[in-house]
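Database export, one record per block. Field names are fixed; values are copied verbatim from the stored entry.
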Amino acid sequence: MIKKLSFVVCLLLGVLTAQAQHQVISFFDELGTARIQTEEYSQAHDTIVMVDHRIDDVIWARYVYRIIDMRYKQNYQLYFPTRVDDPDYRNLFKVILDAVVDGLQIYPRDPETIKPSFKTQPPFTKPQIPMDAFMPVDKTEDHSDDDTYFDISRSTAMLINYDSITDELRPQPYSFESVVRNQVKYLIQEVVFFDKHTSRMHQKIMAIAPLHPVLISTQDSAKIMSSLRESIMFWIPFDNLRPYLAMQYAIPNRNEVKRVTFDEFFQKRLYTSYIVGEGNMYNRWIPDYKHNDITGIRQEQDRIATELLNFEQDLWEY
């Protein structure tokens, strides 16, 4: 009996020792970006339940950049309400604004590319946050006949102000409604990957950036990319924003009983978007190599979307 007990104890100690020596490395780092390098990383704690994909199980991954346009009907729940004093709901831009005031870190855009700058630039400190980052006003439009329009460019009003005495950011709600109605586009970076442990494809948003509503010319591809890059207000690691999204319900659409949070809205991919680029060795985006060809741009978008859709199906052919 003693020999059997000793054998069981030794076996348990061996299993525990083996588990202690084998460190499970997550595919995503603390900012929610994908780990492609074969290095050792510590586990990143997440208060929201999500699947922890091991880096050893991810055998294929591809970066994709998409634009979420609020003018599409399917995205209206992210755009409305535009009122600043709605007692029940906030739109996506208001959630982001309140999160930044609460202390959410945001990162400056990369001056050379539209890629997130998490690994190349530090986040803004509170005094460094550019106040015009929350002033998405399209100055090309004529608002002379609109009595309700609030021209921020001729006022000292900002959506957020920094108080150097209390070291706090404070929202300025009186200009919000005039600003937010022009905030119609967001750029997201996502990774599409295949996990051999679950034997299926997964998609994850890694970063999101509000875009200034600038007019992007479709006649000059170089201007398209420079305008897109300059229109990026700032980058947010999406996992850092998720706790704030999980606390806000989206405004119901034709059914007051069906309530989903913004986090569920994104995780279930209830929004619509279009592709502007993918990760490639040339560091090029679709307008870079489809010069002055609107039909070619759309065909390239469809090609990338079809490849992503067919990849999982092709794995199971026999």
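Remark 1: The radius of gyration is 23 Å.
Remark 2: Residues 18-22, 37-47 have pLDDT under 50 and may be disordered.
End of record.
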